[in-house]
Amino acid sequence: MSYKKFVYFINLFFLLGATLLTFFLILAGGRTTGVLKNFYWFQASTSGFNSAPSVTRWYNYNWCGWESRGIAVNCSSKMAAQPFSPRDNFGSSPLMPSTFLNNRNAYYYLSRVGWAMLLIGLFFLLITLVSVIASLIRYNRRTAALATAMSWITLFFITLSACLYTGCYAKAVKAFHHENRDARLGPKNFGFIWTTVFLLIVNAICCTIMVATHQRNEYIYDRSFASTKTVDSQTPTPVPTNGGIPSSVPVTEVQQSQSHQNHRFFKKLRTKKRTVTSAGDEPDRVQEERVYTEQNVPVVS
């Protein structure tokens, strides 16, 4: 397996890992039993908040009371992008940290917009996955450019979602701790989302490097091909005469000026003619005739 294909497959492996983790994040809280019950964003002590349970966990689609024996009870109705807002979830209470009463919109919209960015990121992540697989099958500029662009767009939305969720629930942890209440972030959800960000960073950088390497190889090939054609066109062809001895063969030596400081589009070429003649048994006499001509030739940078 070549080095390039090895890098492609490593890149695909990272991308598949990011896709799997993102799907787990989307499904978190879809069920309150089994493995998915442990995928939550936030858990806090909510005793005294009107009719709230003693310990509450917030998921993607609802919130549930959590008992010490590991069972979710008294769950709210499910809805997409369940907002994190204790005031909206349980109603206003004097025992509730004041930040949830005075800054209700901050927590409400941070959690909901974070969910929206996660969904948008998943959409672009699937497009990136398809484009990377297509570039593995048949690599060209279009598929490579599409994969690179989608990788950076996906990274932007997933990173934005991670920042919004982290900002929202980190503020909530601080608010609960200020009131001497227990609170913590969901380790699985936040571990998954920031691992996804890391995998997408590696994927975006790899895609960019592969595109840059491919374009550099094409540029080197084009320059070498053009220089080969130029050398072939300037090589003189010997003209045989009677007896197999070349006679009166003009040899042209072109000396090009290397200075481009005048920034002109044309430069002057100086040519030098050399004529070789032979006369009977006498040694060859070389007659040099310097002919200076000026001609305008386009400058090739």
UniProtKB/TrEMBL annotation:
InterPro entries: SUR7/Rim9-like_fungi. Residues 282-292 have a biased composition (Basic and acidic residues). Residues 261-275 have a biased composition (Basic residues). One of its GO terms (cellular component) is membrane raft. The chain crosses the membrane at residues 6-28, 113-137, 149-170, 191-212. Coiled coil: none annotated. Keywords: Membrane, Transmembrane, Transmembrane helix. Residues 254-301 are annotated as: Disordered. Pfam families: SUR7 (PF06687). GO terms for biological process: cortical actin cytoskeleton organization; endocytosis; fungal-type cell wall organization; septin cytoskeleton organization. This is K7_Ynl194cp. It comes from Saccharomyces cerevisiae (strain Kyokai no. 7 / NBRC 101557). The gene is K7_YNL194C.
